[in-house]
Each structure stands twice: as structure tokens, then as C-alpha cells.
Amino acid sequence: LLTDADVLVENFRPGAMARLGYAWDHLHARFPRLVYAAVSGFGHTGPLASRPAYDMVVQAMGGVMSITGHPDGPPTRVGTSIGDVTAGLFTAIGICSALYDRERTGEATMIDVAMLDCQVAILENAIARYTATGTVPARLGARHPSITPFSAFAASDGHFVIAAGNDALFRRLCRVIGAPEIADEPRFRTNALRTEHHAELQGALENALRRETVATWLQRLGAADLPCGAINDVAAVLAHPQVRARNMVVTTDDERLAGIEMAGNPIKNSRYPDPSTRGPVPDLMARDESTT
Amino acid sequence: LLTDADVLVENFRPGAMARLGYAWDHLHARFPRLVYAAVSGFGHTGPLASRPAYDMVVQAMGGVMSITGHPDGPPTRVGTSIGDVTAGLFTAIGICSALYDRERTGEATMIDVAMLDCQVAILENAIARYTATGTVPARLGARHPSITPFSAFAASDGHFVIAAGNDALFRRLCRVIGAPEIADEPRFRTNALRTEHHAELQGALENALRRETVATWLQRLGAADLPCGAINDVAAVLAHPQVRARNMVVTTDDERLAGIEMAGNPIKNSRYPDPSTRGPVPDLMARDESTT
Q1: Which residues of B touch A124 (CB under 8 A)?
Q2: Residue A286: what pLDDT?
Q3: What residues form DSSP beta bridges with B35?
Q4: Quick check: helix, strand or coil at residue B212?
Q5: In whole angstroms, what is the distance from residue B65 CA to residue A80 CA?
Q6: pLDDT at residue B292 greater than cutoff 80
Q7: Which residues of chain A are under the pLDDT cut of 70?
Q8: Inter-chain residue contact A96 with B101, CB threshold 8 Å
């Protein structure tokens, strides 16, 4: 298998592959063009290298749980396995880079990706805020730490989000919801002031927003080119016209899985087709039968 | 600039680059080796292509907010800009793939990545659960939807996480916390039963866990090779020995930014150095001065 392979991906703890006879050094000597990608909880170096991990463990240790959820509320997990998913994405970047590098040098490399490292890498402005100010980033519910208004808001029949990322959008928002006087208040004049007085601003905006439904506001704000959106559940996401138009829900040709839907490929490439079905997975049973 | 460039990345709304004279077709004809990566809120096709978006908008519309937070609690944003971050990661994969493809075909391609599509792509098991069962995935607080126990737990002085991903780990967990009888209860015998009775199991485990501190449990569970972790805040993450050992906190050589720390590179490659500092950013003012 390795003779024809371009990439080997493994997610054992460090040392396990060597025990099985598949250490990187050994494989690299025999298959110099084989890219070797190792994904593990904590990576192949450092004091915790041999420790076990799951998504939940790195969400907790990597900081994202400390900034997700409501102030004084219970700990909150990101609802999707972001610890697994981001490690997969960074590994894919590492593999593609290694393949590109191999084209130029003729020789493959080993990639070592740790789930914990990837959580650190996605903390983005939380790290900058902490190192610049010394204040430890907190849980903020549904609002952005440094842009206001940029949050979930209550309409008459539920919540939706508005992201008014600059002064012009904020003024337009106040006008469209029929409360232009809010934009004139000195305490809401700049983004820094709005962030300082975010609770009062949330209340003032919701006084106006509670007069109409989510659907009405999404229509009116959308018509005014204001960034806003429904808080869609998974059923609404999969049925959404934009999601469907982008071929982001695909099925499989495998008859035994008829009706099962999966996420499509979000990387649309001008030269390659974007099929709306996936072939069946290799079937070990069927292969066994065919060889007897 | 384009004559020497390998990749052009832009994040305008569809049509903006064409108005500026930089449409893909036009550039591709002149610079056939230039990879063109377009990142936008909704992509270059579909009914919402021209709509504005920010991270918050695609977190809401893409479903992750509907599964993040506590049941009956208020809407909750993922604490980091996962809408921006995942779009960047998928775009990086697209660019690296296009560069590899260019090595083989001699010609570049255009990549079209939508932030909304990327949110669909990271929903992972929420899509499978919905299409397989018809039940719309809900907000579950800090617990995993289909693995139990896999959640945050209360010790005597705070919360930490345990991820006992299979029957053997669950039995070992009960033994290590001094409550082996929990593992013998019929209602907790399999993962499916534990997930069905997750609230009772949480209570039973916390009865034992509340007797000791987080630090004690992390030490004892860790010694027994059970996946567990502290819920670290950003300060603790940046100071963590494993994070430091992996060079995941870097600084810059730029004297004006002394003391500023940033996330390191989570893709460790066997052939390339992993420096712990980054060079200064280009300084437009300094360049202006040097040319006068």
C-alpha cells in the first residue's frame, strides 16, 4: 500500500506507530516521497506528549470553553467538535503544503499536528486582548468582545443577529428600526463607547426591535444592506436556498444509505467539478464475497 | 505586483474586484500562473451572493449557534470568530491545493470560498444525527451529543472536563473516583444507555467528584491515563508548559510591539524551522520616509 501512497495519516499517540514498525525515520528511508502526517492530542513533543485527549479535553484546556457561554453561567462546549475539526483542517493544510514542497524538492516531510496547538491557534483576538491589556477574556454570551452592536437581539417572537461593524452601519441600523435618536446619543457615538455601554445599547435597540417579528426585521434590515441573520437550526440550514444553491448538501450513490445527507465541499475550484453525490464507501463484506 | 505573485487573496463581495479591473477571467488571461482566492460571506453564486456578512451572521445562519449553549438558555456565540477562522482555513487548503495543481498542469485556478458554506462543513455529526433520525439537534450545554460521560463536571472548587469515550474508560473512571458501583448499574451499562440517562449519571458522578478539588482529580485521573482537562482561561493557556514546549506562543522582533504575544504555527514540519519570533510588519510610514 505504501509503495503507491502519497500520504500516510495517523492519529495514534506518539510512539504507537514505531511499535507497529511504522516510525517516520524508518518509512522515510524506504519511501522518501511518502508524506507522513501525525495528528495527536498534544503532539510528539512536550511534557504531555503521551497523554490521551478527545475533542472535549482540548476544548477545555485550549481556552475556547473559557470564552464560550454566558457570564456566571455554567461551562459551555462549542456545539460542534471544533477540537477535532480544526486539527483536521490544519493537518490538511500541512499535507497540501508538504505535497507542494515535495514537487520542488523531490522529498517528503513529516507533519506533527497537536489538537491542543490548534485550539491556541484559533483563539485569535482573545490572545491579543489579553497580552495588550492584561485583562483575561471572559464569557460574553452572544456578543462580540470589541465590536458593538454585534450580537443576538430579541424581536417579538425570538432572537436573530445583527452585526453593525462600523459607525455608518450603526447609524443606518438605528434609522431602519425607527429609532434614529439612539445614534445621536453621545454614549453611543463611537464603537469604543458602544462597547463600553453595550448593555444600555442592547436595551435601547431591543425596545424598538421587540415591536416586530424576526422575519420582518430580517426583511427590512436585509433590504437596507445591513448584515443580519436568522439563528437557523440544523434543519433550516440544510433546507436553506443559499446552502442548496452552493451544493453544500450532498448525498451518496450507495443505495443502502439512500436519504442520508452530508455536508458538501466548501472549496469551489474553477477547474474541477463539484458533484452532488459521493460514491459508496469500500465494502469489506462485499469484497470478501467477491474473492470467495 | 501581480507579475511576481503566486496567489491573490481577496474578500470583497462578488463583483467588487471586477469593478476595480481585477476580474478573475481578465487576470487569468494575463497571469495564467496566478492562483486567485475569493473569500466572501455567501460565495459568488446563489440568491444571497451579494449580501453582506460578518462572523456573527454566519455563526447564526450556519447552525453552530443553534447547537451551542444551554437548553432553554439565551443564544450563545462561539467565543472565538469561528466563522472567520474556518473560512480562512478552508481557503488555505484551497490555495495549497491550487498551487500543487499548478505544478502539475502549469496553470492556476480560482478558488471561491463562502463563510456560510464553511459553517455547514463543520457541523459534522449534527448533520448525520438529523438526517438519520429526523430529530433537530439541540443545545446541550457542555456535553457531547452521543458519547457519555463526555462533559464538564463539578468538583469541590470548580469545573473540569472528563471524556470517557468507551466502556473500558468509563469503568476505570468509576473505579478511580471511588464509586465502582456506578459502572455496575444496568442503566449505565452501554454508551447508548449512558447517553439516554445522562442527567442521572452526571449526578451520580458528581456526588463522588464533589469530595475533592479539580487539581486532585486532574492528578488522579491523569495518573490513570483517563482523558481529562482543566477549563483553562486564556492566561492559563498562554502559560501552559505544553503550549510553551510546543512553541505555540511567539513574539515579534518589532521593538514597538515588545511584550505582545501571538499564537504560533500549529503545523510542525520536519524540514522547516519553527522560529519563536516573527519579523516586523512592513511599515508604510518608514518606507515613505526612506524614499523622500
Answers
A1: 80-81, 84-85, 263
A2: 53
A3: B7
A4: coil
A5: 10
A6: no
A7: 284-292
A8: no
Determine the pLDDT at residue A115: 98
Tell if the CB–CB gap between A51 and B222 is shorter than 8 Å. yes
Inspect the interface and report whether the beta carbons of B100 and A101 lie closer than 8 Å: no
Q: Residue B122 and residue A82: Cβ atoms within 8 Å?
A: yes
Q: Cell digits for A153?
A: 437581539
The three cell numbers of residue B214 are 479539580
Q: Which residues in chain A have their CB less than 8 angstroms from residue B68's CB?
A: 68, 76-80
The alpha-carbon gap from B174 to the nearest alpha carbon of chain A, in Å, equals 18
Of B28, B144, B159, B197, the catalytic one is: B144
**Beta bridge partner(s), residue A250:** A262
> Under a CB-based contact definition with an 8 Å cutoff, are residues A128 and A53 in contact?
no
What does the pLDDT read at residue B256?
85
Which residue, chain included where needed, has cell 446541550?
B140
pLDDT at residue number A291? 41
Which pLDDT score is estimated for A285? 61
- Residues of chain A contacting B81 with CB distance shorter than 8 Å: 124-125
Question: What cell does B223 get?
Answer: 495518573
What is the structure's pLDDT at B285? 61
Query: Å from A180 to nearest chain B CA?
Result: 22
Q: What is the pLDDT of residues B189-217, one digit of tens each?
A: 999 999 999 999 999 999 999 999 999 99
pLDDT single digits (tens) B35-73: 999 999 999 999 999 999 999 999 999 999 999 999 989
* B269 phi, psi to nearest 5 deg: -115, 130
Buried b (16+ CB within 10 A) or exposed e, A60-74: bbbbbbbbbbbeeee
Which residues in B lie closer than 8 A to residue A90 (C-beta atoms)? 89, 266-267
Q: What is the pLDDT of residue B289?
A: 46
Which DSSP string corresponds to A211-277? TS-HHHHHHHHHHTT--EEE---HHHHHH-HHHHHTT-EEEES-GGGTT--EE--S-EETTS---SE
Is the backbone of residue A225 left (phi > 0), alpha (psi -120 to 50) or beta? left
Min CA distance, B113 vs chain A (Å)? 5
What confidence category does residue B286 fall into, taking pLDDT thresholds of 50, 70 and 90? low
Q: Which of A117, A162, A176, A281 to mutate to test the interface with B (most CBs of B within 10 A)?
A: A117
Q: How far is B124 from chain A, CA to nearest CA, in Å?
A: 7
Instruction: Report the C-alpha gap between B11 and B83 in whole angstroms.
Output: 14
Residues of A with a known catalytic role? 144
pLDDT digits (tens, 9 = 90+) for B206-251: 999 999 999 999 999 999 999 999 999 999 999 999 999 999 999 9
Cell (9 digits) for B126: 449534527
How many C-alpha atoms does A205 have within 13 Å on its Cβ side?
A: 31
Mean per-residue pLDDT of chain B: 95
pTM of the model: 0.95
Contact B227 A101 (CB under 8 A): no
B228-230 and B158-163 beta bridge pairing: antiparallel
